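--- STAGE predict ---
source: upstream dedup step, 1 unique chain passed
mode: sequence only
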Amino acid sequence: MSESEKLERPAAATNAQEETPTDVIESDAILNGKQEVLIQHGETTYRLRITQNGKLILCK
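--- STAGE serialize ---
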């Protein structure tokens, strides 16, 4: 890569710094003590559930 190409390309770190941080929501706030909940997104319903191993699974 030439020196002029290096100067023309924006640095990847610059783009990452400009992004808005994502909110963090605890799973307990969503599940509210339940093992699974249904989430309506547009016309589609999703099922969010906790597995026996304590992992989260989101299914259509």
